[in-house]
Design a protein that fits this description.
mainly alpha, three-stranded antiparallel sheet, 10 helices, about 5% strand
């Protein structure tokens, strides 16, 4: 018999445990396709810097002679090697990971519905077959752009003009292509999860969907957290806790919202809320406000953006404990978050 979970336990299930399970699949696929390639480019960049200084005396020195040709040849070799077979290996890793993520997300959807209702979930979920044509095209474009980019920079005439910056710039073009492949894998996996959850909503006759974001999600994703739409509909686009990121003319959106986004929609039926109890959408929204108040975020997000988001939050009436609000106001006065920004 299914066991109904209270909203906080349900939030922990979907926001932490289930997202972490998909993240594990994602990380494995990304590692298989890109880890050695990133290492090759990073090693080549370090070696190029060391060898340039050794050959010409400083990082800003001009490069000439046969030594310059050797450095260019080494950078070209590393760039070519790092991108060789990337499209194939990344697509293979993505295909395998999507299969695993759909299977996992189907089980997760059933567990979520049972936790939300205390009743058995639908036995059959009609998940559409994965269509990865868009991802395959993105991988092909990433490799093509990377090759074009590093070949344009790793020419003798260019490196003679730019110096070491030309060498490192060429290697950076290859690295950017690998980064794009990484993002394509992540987005493809999380799109499959989104479609699975939408199919779960249909199978369980849930008329709505609610947006779930990670606790350290960006200010854009946190603004959507807890928002409800009718099943299959888009959320209003252009939202963010950071006023500088708001775009009132943006088209509607569904998760994943951006590369590497792990947000997901989950089925929702207002009838699942118990009278007198905080509903799951309300619990998700409160957790998002707490994240903004505490400055939880990844290192890739700027402190300035999080401070603007905090100011926006405090200009309203956030439903947060007094101690959290006091600390948030102190952090806003200081212009930074006192104890760092990682989720404890």
């Amino acid at each position: 018999m299914a066991e109904r979970l209270d909203p906080q336990a349900l939030l922990e299930l979907v926001q932490q445990r289930q997202i972490d399970e998909i993240a594990s699949i994602e990380d494995k696929a990304v590692k298989a396709a890109t880890e050695k390639r990133f290492a090759l480019i990073d090693d080549a960049s370090r070696s190029a810097t060391v060898n340039w200084v050794k050959a010409f005396g400083s990082m800003s020195a001009e490069g000439t002679g046969s030594l310059l040709g050797d450095l260019i040849a080494s950078a070209l070799k590393a760039s070519n090697t790092s991108l060789k077979g990337l499209e194939t290996s990344a697509f293979s890793a993505l295909t395998e990971a999507v299969g695993g993520s759909v299977t996992t997300a189907t089980a997760q959807g059933a567990a979520f519905v049972e936790g939300a209702t205390g009743k058995a979930a639908a036995a059959r979920v009609a998940v559409p077959a994965p269509d990865l044509a868009e991802e395959r095209a993105a991988l092909k474009a990433a490799v093509a752009d990377g090759e074009k980019g590093f070949k344009a920079l790793l020419k003798r005439t260019v490196v003679e003009r730019l110096g070491l910056r030309g060498i490192l710039g060429g290697l950076s073009q290859a690295r950017q292509a690998i980064t794009r492949a990484k993002s394509t894998i992540s987005t493809g996996i999380n799109k499959s999860v989104q479609k699975t959850m939408q199919a779960t909503a249909t199978a369980n006759k849930a008329p709505q969907e609610v947006w779930v974001a990670e606790r350290d999600a960006c200010t854009r994703c946190l603004k959507y957290a807890g928002q409800i739409v009718d099943k299959g509909k888009d959320w209003t686009g252009g939202q963010s806790w950071d006023p500088n990121q708001v775009d009132k003319n943006a088209p509607g959106v569904r998760p994943p919202l951006h590369p590497n986004c792990r947000c997901r929609p989950v089925p929702w039926n207002p009838a699942w809320a118990k009278p007198g109890e905080v509903s799951l959408p309300e619990a998700i929204s409160r957790e998002a406000e707490r994240s903004v108040a505490r400055g939880f975020s990844l290192a890739s997000e700027s402190n300035a953006s999080r401070v603007r988001a905090l100011k926006e939050l405090l200009s309203g009436s956030p439903n947060l404990p007094k101690t959290v609000l006091e600390r948030a106001r102190r952090d806003l006065r200081n212009g930074e978050f006192a104890r760092g920004r990682a989720v404890p």
